[in-house]
């Protein structure tokens, strides 16, 4: 899978965001900050499925995983590996055209590894607006991977709070997991 990942990185580094896939240490850091007993986990930027696999293996039967992955080769592989989950080969900004409102209202977590800083300001803001809309409708918690020690966007402009909940040094590059909540 690492060869496929590197090939995708060469084709489009802005979408892939890193030269190598996330480590299992990063995956475990996400998992320990989530309650996977019920509700829908919305994964955005599933990539090769390193984090997907850990979420999938820890989910209870009452939980559901829906993943958006814009790179078709990754998405096709994930569908084969995790046939009970839903993998959508579309942009997350199209979620309201793809999923019904009832499915969206069950979202408990948005787990994003989308490389916001490399996508450019306009696209990043469009994605954040989509996350915010979901959070307002569901009360979902939004977890974001970033390779910088700070938020990749001005979260206060989106009426959100932000807290760095974990730095994973055993990942290349080291990753930070940020937790966002809507200010009530």
TrEMBL record:
InterPro entries: KsgA/Erm (IPR001737), SAM-dependent_MTases_sf (IPR029063). Pfam families: RrnaAD. GO terms for biological process: methylation. Keywords: Methyltransferase, RNA-binding, S-adenosyl-L-methionine, Transferase. It comes from the Bacteria. One of its GO terms (molecular function) is RNA binding. This is Methyltransferase domain-containing protein.
């Amino acid at each position: 899978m690492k060869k496929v990942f590197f090939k995708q990185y060469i084709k489009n580094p802005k979408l892939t965001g890193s030269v190598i896939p996330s480590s299992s240490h990063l995956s475990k850091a996400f998992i320990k900050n989530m309650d996977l007993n019920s509700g829908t986990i919305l994964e955005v930027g599933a990539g090769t499925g390193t984090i997907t696999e850990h979420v999938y293996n820890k989910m209870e039967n009452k939980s559901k995983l829906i993943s958006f992955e814009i790179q078709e080769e990754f998405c096709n592989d994930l569908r084969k590996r995790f046939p009970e989950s839903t993998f959508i080969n579309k942009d997350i900004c199209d979620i309201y055209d793809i999923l019904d409102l009832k499915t969206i209202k069950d979202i408990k977590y948005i787990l994003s590894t989308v490389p916001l800083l490399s996508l450019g300001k306009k696209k990043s803001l469009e994605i954040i607006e989509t996350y915010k809309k979901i959070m307002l409708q569901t009360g979902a918690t939004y977890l974001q991977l970033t390779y910088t020690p700070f938020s990749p966007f001005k979260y206060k402009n989106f009426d959100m709070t932000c807290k760095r909940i974990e730095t994973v040094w055993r990942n290349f590059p080291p990753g930070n997991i940020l937790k966002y909540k809507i200010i009530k």
